[in-house]
Amino acid sequence: MATTKEYAAEVPLSVFAIAVHLGLASFGIAAWLTGSLADDYKKAEHTGFTLHSWIGMGLASFILLRVLLGMWGPRHLRFTQWVPYTKERLQCVREDIMGLLRLRLPERPLHEGLAGLVQTLGLLVFLLLALSGGFLFFTLVPGQKATGLIHAVKEVHETGQFLIPIFLSMHGGAVIVHALRGRHLWRKMLFLKEPQGAPFPGDARVNQAESGVP
Known about the structure:
Blueprint: H1 4-10, H2 15-33, H3 47-72, H4 79-82, H5 87-101, H6 114-139, H7 148-157, H8 160-180, H9 185-188, H10 204-211
Membrane topology: Multi-pass membrane protein
Organism: Geobacter hydrogenophilus
Keywords: Cell membrane, Membrane, Transmembrane, Transmembrane helix
Protein backbone atom coordinates (compact mmCIF):
# COMPACT_ATOMS: atom_id res chain seq x y z
CA MET A 1 0.00 0.00 0.00
CA ALA A 2 1.32 3.46 -0.87
CA THR A 3 2.40 5.69 1.97
CA THR A 4 0.93 9.15 2.49
CA LYS A 5 4.12 10.66 1.06
CA GLU A 6 4.00 8.58 -2.10
CA TYR A 7 0.27 9.19 -2.58
CA ALA A 8 0.60 12.95 -2.19
CA ALA A 9 3.58 13.06 -4.53
CA GLU A 10 1.85 11.08 -7.29
CA VAL A 11 -1.50 12.89 -7.31
CA PRO A 12 -1.40 16.23 -9.16
CA LEU A 13 -3.41 19.18 -7.93
CA SER A 14 -6.69 19.73 -9.75
CA VAL A 15 -7.54 22.95 -11.56
CA PHE A 16 -10.10 23.71 -8.85
CA ALA A 17 -7.55 23.24 -6.04
CA ILE A 18 -5.05 25.51 -7.80
CA ALA A 19 -7.78 28.12 -8.35
CA VAL A 20 -8.62 28.05 -4.64
CA HIS A 21 -4.95 28.53 -3.79
CA LEU A 22 -4.71 31.47 -6.20
CA GLY A 23 -7.85 32.98 -4.69
CA LEU A 24 -6.44 32.69 -1.18
CA ALA A 25 -3.15 34.26 -2.24
CA SER A 26 -4.60 37.12 -4.29
CA PHE A 27 -7.42 38.07 -1.93
CA GLY A 28 -5.17 37.58 1.12
CA ILE A 29 -2.54 39.96 -0.22
CA ALA A 30 -5.20 42.43 -1.38
CA ALA A 31 -6.87 42.37 2.05
CA TRP A 32 -3.52 43.01 3.73
CA LEU A 33 -2.65 45.89 1.39
CA THR A 34 -6.04 47.57 1.89
CA GLY A 35 -6.16 46.98 5.65
CA SER A 36 -4.85 50.43 6.52
CA LEU A 37 -7.53 52.03 4.32
CA ALA A 38 -10.29 50.58 6.51
CA ASP A 39 -9.54 53.10 9.27
CA ASP A 40 -11.87 55.55 7.57
CA TYR A 41 -14.87 53.54 8.83
CA LYS A 42 -15.47 56.29 11.40
CA LYS A 43 -16.08 58.85 8.67
CA ALA A 44 -19.20 59.50 6.64
CA GLU A 45 -17.16 58.80 3.51
CA HIS A 46 -15.58 55.37 4.03
CA THR A 47 -14.45 54.16 0.63
CA GLY A 48 -11.41 52.41 2.09
CA PHE A 49 -13.49 50.48 4.59
CA THR A 50 -15.97 49.42 1.93
CA LEU A 51 -13.20 48.26 -0.40
CA HIS A 52 -11.42 46.31 2.31
CA SER A 53 -14.69 44.77 3.52
CA TRP A 54 -15.66 43.33 0.15
CA ILE A 55 -12.14 42.07 -0.51
CA GLY A 56 -12.28 40.44 2.92
CA MET A 57 -15.55 38.72 2.07
CA GLY A 58 -13.95 37.42 -1.10
CA LEU A 59 -11.10 36.00 0.99
CA ALA A 60 -13.62 34.45 3.38
CA SER A 61 -15.30 32.70 0.44
CA PHE A 62 -12.03 31.09 -0.62
CA ILE A 63 -11.26 30.14 2.99
CA LEU A 64 -14.61 28.37 3.11
CA LEU A 65 -13.79 26.51 -0.11
CA ARG A 66 -10.40 25.46 1.27
CA VAL A 67 -11.99 24.22 4.48
CA LEU A 68 -14.49 22.19 2.46
CA LEU A 69 -11.63 20.73 0.41
CA GLY A 70 -9.76 19.95 3.59
CA MET A 71 -12.69 18.08 5.05
CA TRP A 72 -14.41 16.41 2.09
CA GLY A 73 -12.16 17.00 -0.90
CA PRO A 74 -9.66 14.66 -2.58
CA ARG A 75 -7.79 12.44 -0.13
CA HIS A 76 -4.40 14.11 -0.54
CA LEU A 77 -5.89 17.55 0.26
CA ARG A 78 -7.76 16.56 3.40
CA PHE A 79 -6.43 17.95 6.67
CA THR A 80 -6.33 14.46 8.17
CA GLN A 81 -3.68 13.49 5.61
CA TRP A 82 -1.12 16.23 6.22
CA VAL A 83 -1.81 18.57 9.17
CA PRO A 84 1.06 17.87 11.63
CA TYR A 85 -0.85 16.67 14.68
CA THR A 86 0.37 13.07 14.85
CA LYS A 87 3.61 11.96 16.48
CA GLU A 88 5.09 10.89 13.15
CA ARG A 89 4.29 14.18 11.42
CA LEU A 90 5.57 16.26 14.34
CA GLN A 91 8.78 14.26 14.19
CA CYS A 92 9.12 15.24 10.53
CA VAL A 93 8.68 18.89 11.50
CA ARG A 94 11.36 18.52 14.15
CA GLU A 95 13.74 16.88 11.68
CA ASP A 96 13.21 19.69 9.18
CA ILE A 97 13.87 22.38 11.81
CA MET A 98 17.02 20.62 13.01
CA GLY A 99 18.12 20.29 9.39
CA LEU A 100 17.67 24.02 8.80
CA LEU A 101 19.80 24.75 11.86
CA ARG A 102 22.51 22.72 10.13
CA LEU A 103 21.91 24.68 6.90
CA ARG A 104 20.31 21.64 5.26
CA LEU A 105 17.05 22.25 3.40
CA PRO A 106 14.10 19.86 3.91
CA GLU A 107 13.48 17.51 1.00
CA ARG A 108 9.89 16.36 1.28
CA PRO A 109 6.78 16.34 -0.92
CA LEU A 110 4.21 19.09 -0.70
CA HIS A 111 2.45 19.55 2.69
CA GLU A 112 4.86 17.38 4.68
CA GLY A 113 7.18 18.29 7.54
CA LEU A 114 7.87 21.96 8.20
CA ALA A 115 6.00 22.96 5.03
CA GLY A 116 2.85 21.36 6.44
CA LEU A 117 3.25 23.28 9.70
CA VAL A 118 3.71 26.60 7.90
CA GLN A 119 0.67 26.00 5.71
CA THR A 120 -1.39 24.96 8.72
CA LEU A 121 -0.46 28.18 10.52
CA GLY A 122 -1.31 30.16 7.40
CA LEU A 123 -4.75 28.60 7.14
CA LEU A 124 -5.38 29.30 10.82
CA VAL A 125 -4.37 32.94 10.35
CA PHE A 126 -6.66 33.39 7.36
CA LEU A 127 -9.49 31.56 9.13
CA LEU A 128 -9.15 33.88 12.15
CA LEU A 129 -9.23 36.93 9.90
CA ALA A 130 -12.17 35.58 7.90
CA LEU A 131 -14.25 34.92 11.02
CA SER A 132 -13.43 38.23 12.70
CA GLY A 133 -13.79 40.14 9.43
CA GLY A 134 -17.13 38.50 8.70
CA PHE A 135 -18.36 39.49 12.16
CA LEU A 136 -17.28 43.10 11.59
CA PHE A 137 -18.83 43.12 8.12
CA PHE A 138 -22.28 42.51 9.59
CA THR A 139 -21.96 44.38 12.89
CA LEU A 140 -19.64 47.36 12.46
CA VAL A 141 -21.61 50.50 11.58
CA PRO A 142 -19.64 52.94 9.42
CA GLY A 143 -19.62 56.47 10.78
CA GLN A 144 -19.67 55.25 14.39
CA LYS A 145 -16.88 54.37 16.78
CA ALA A 146 -16.58 50.66 17.60
CA THR A 147 -17.20 49.77 21.25
CA GLY A 148 -17.54 46.69 23.44
CA LEU A 149 -17.37 43.31 21.71
CA ILE A 150 -17.16 44.90 18.28
CA HIS A 151 -14.08 46.87 19.34
CA ALA A 152 -12.47 43.73 20.81
CA VAL A 153 -13.07 41.77 17.60
CA LYS A 154 -11.70 44.69 15.58
CA GLU A 155 -8.49 44.62 17.62
CA VAL A 156 -8.13 40.89 16.96
CA HIS A 157 -8.78 41.41 13.26
CA GLU A 158 -6.11 44.09 13.04
CA THR A 159 -3.43 41.59 14.07
CA GLY A 160 -3.63 40.47 10.44
CA GLN A 161 -1.46 43.45 9.53
CA PHE A 162 1.39 41.60 11.27
CA LEU A 163 0.39 37.95 10.89
CA ILE A 164 -0.12 37.97 7.11
CA PRO A 165 3.34 39.36 6.21
CA ILE A 166 4.97 36.91 8.64
CA PHE A 167 3.24 34.00 6.94
CA LEU A 168 3.90 35.34 3.45
CA SER A 169 7.59 35.78 4.21
CA MET A 170 7.89 32.16 5.39
CA HIS A 171 5.78 30.67 2.61
CA GLY A 172 7.20 32.87 -0.12
CA GLY A 173 10.74 32.34 1.11
CA ALA A 174 10.30 28.58 0.90
CA VAL A 175 8.95 28.86 -2.66
CA ILE A 176 11.95 30.98 -3.69
CA VAL A 177 14.43 28.55 -2.13
CA HIS A 178 12.77 25.60 -3.88
CA ALA A 179 12.86 27.47 -7.19
CA LEU A 180 16.57 28.21 -6.79
CA ARG A 181 17.13 24.48 -6.24
CA GLY A 182 15.22 23.55 -9.37
CA ARG A 183 11.77 22.75 -8.00
CA HIS A 184 9.45 25.36 -9.49
CA LEU A 185 6.28 24.75 -7.49
CA TRP A 186 5.11 28.30 -8.16
CA ARG A 187 4.66 27.43 -11.83
CA LYS A 188 2.10 24.75 -10.99
CA MET A 189 0.15 27.28 -8.93
CA LEU A 190 -0.07 29.54 -11.98
CA PHE A 191 -1.19 26.73 -14.33
CA LEU A 192 2.27 26.59 -15.89
CA LYS A 193 4.26 23.44 -16.58
CA GLU A 194 7.26 22.74 -14.39
CA PRO A 195 10.52 22.59 -16.38
CA GLN A 196 11.67 19.07 -17.12
CA GLY A 197 14.82 18.07 -15.32
CA ALA A 198 16.21 15.98 -12.53
CA PRO A 199 13.43 14.87 -10.15
CA PHE A 200 13.29 16.47 -6.73
CA PRO A 201 14.20 14.12 -3.87
CA GLY A 202 11.03 12.59 -2.45
CA ASP A 203 8.87 12.81 -5.55
CA ALA A 204 7.23 9.85 -7.24
CA ARG A 205 10.06 9.27 -9.71
CA VAL A 206 12.65 9.10 -6.95
CA ASN A 207 10.42 6.79 -4.89
CA GLN A 208 10.13 4.42 -7.87
CA ALA A 209 13.87 4.49 -8.53
CA GLU A 210 14.70 3.76 -4.90
CA SER A 211 12.17 0.93 -4.62
CA GLY A 212 13.00 -0.58 -8.01
CA VAL A 213 9.34 -0.58 -8.98
CA PRO A 214 8.76 0.58 -12.61
